[in-house]
Amino acid sequence: MTRYMDGWMLPALDESNRDFFTRAKIVVRECAACGTIQHPPEDLCHACGGYEFGGREVAGVGTVYSHTVVEHPVHPDLSAHVPYTVVLVSLDELPDVRIVGNLLETATDDVRVGLPVRAVWEEIPDAETEETIRLPQWVPA
Ligand SMILES: [Zn+2]
């Protein structure tokens, strides 16, 4: 997959987000104390204040919950890619968990709420940490 933005800032990996950004799986955090699923990853459970989490892998399939079409390139490296569609995806297994990403392989006029999608991963080597960042993107299912 072609990378959109060479030189663009990558997520800083830490214990709370490493699974999500490196495994090429949709991995959300599940509170060890109360079982609440929390995404995006944070250090503190919003439901019970717990600090311990496990990773829960879920299928990378869902439906478009919301979307917007970006027509103005906010960075010069995006000039060749506009217009593009950013989607918020509601996961089939966890409908209250929503994952943001770009919708690929789809004309901007063809996106709609409820469109079934599946995750694909954009792989980016992180020279600083020597890890590979894997960003979820979406394509029609
Ligand atoms: Zn909790």
Structure description:
With 141 residues, the chain is mainly beta. The chain has one domain (18-140). It has one helix at 18-22; strands at residues 26-31, 37-38, 53-58, 61-70, 84-91, 98-103, 116-126, 131-140. The chain has a five-stranded antiparallel β-sheet. The protein has a three-stranded antiparallel β-sheet with strand order 2-1-3, with no helix packed on it. A hairpin with a 4-residue loop joins β7 and β8 (131-140). The longest helix is centred in the N-terminal third of the chain and has 5 residues, at 18-22. The structure holds zinc ion (ZN). Zinc ion binds next to loops.
Q: In which order are the strands of the major sheet placed?
A: 6-5-4-7-8
Bound molecules: zinc ion
What characterizes the major β-sheet? 5 strands, antiparallel
What average pLDDT do the residues reach?
Answer: 90
Number of domains: 1
Task: Classify the beta-strand content into a percent band.
Answer: 35-45%
What's the helix-strand series? HEEEEEEEE
Describe the global form.
globular
Helicity, as a percent range: under 10%
- SS-based class: mainly beta
Q: What is the terminal-to-terminal distance?
A: 17 Å
Count of helix runs: 1
- Unreliable segments (pLDDT under 50, ≥5 consecutive)? none
Radius of gyration: 16 Å
Give me the count of strands. Answer: 8
